[in-house]
Amino acid sequence: MRNIEDFLARALTDDLGKLILRFTIGFLMLFHGYDKLTNGIDGIKFLVTRDGLPEFLAYGVYVGEVVVPILIIIGLFTRISSIIYAATMLFAIYLAHAQDVFAISEKGAWAIELQALFMLGALALAFLGAGKYSIDKK
């Protein structure tokens, strides 16, 4: 009987942890997406074209910062959405924070710790899956 209780406790804890991770990275990224929706993406277009990439790539920010976070929060296509999210963060680091990859902030922290936390949290979720508190239920 104890093994069944341990199994259930572990399963509930794992799935609750996945839900918290999904909600956290999804919800926090939506603030960035909302900013792009309300203020436009001229800054992203500038960064993309500055690096010699086609301007249309800037529109991917709507997928990476609006659509994908919503999918992650509700737990639909979670693994692929998380990979797209992580790729979005990698692209953001490349475009806007490349000079900070090996830098330390004034407070002594890694200068891109927030971007790295978003990216690696999404990557962890890609490996973990959505959990049972999701539309995917895997």
Descriptive terms for the model:
138 residues, mainly alpha
Describe this structure in words.
The chain has one domain (2-128). It has five helices and no strands. The chain has helices at residues 2-39, 42-50, 60-74, 78-96, 113-128. The longest helix is centred in the N-terminal third of the chain and has 38 residues, at 2-39. The mean pLDDT is 94.
Short description:
The chain is mainly α and 138 residues long. It has helices spanning 2-39, 42-50, 60-74, 78-96, 113-128.
Low-pLDDT runs of 5+ residues are: none
Count structural domains.
Answer: 1
Task: Using the CA coordinates, give the radius of gyration.
Answer: 17 Å
| Intertermini distance | 25 Å
- Based on Cα principal axes, name the global outline: globular
> What's the quaternary structure here?
single chain
Total number of helical segments? 5
State the secondary-structure class: mainly alpha
Share of helix, binned: over 70%
Beta-strand segment tally: 0
Profile the largest sheet: none
Q: How much strand content do the residues show?
A: under 5%
Report the mean per-residue pLDDT as an integer: 94
- SSE string, helices as H and strands as E: HHHHH
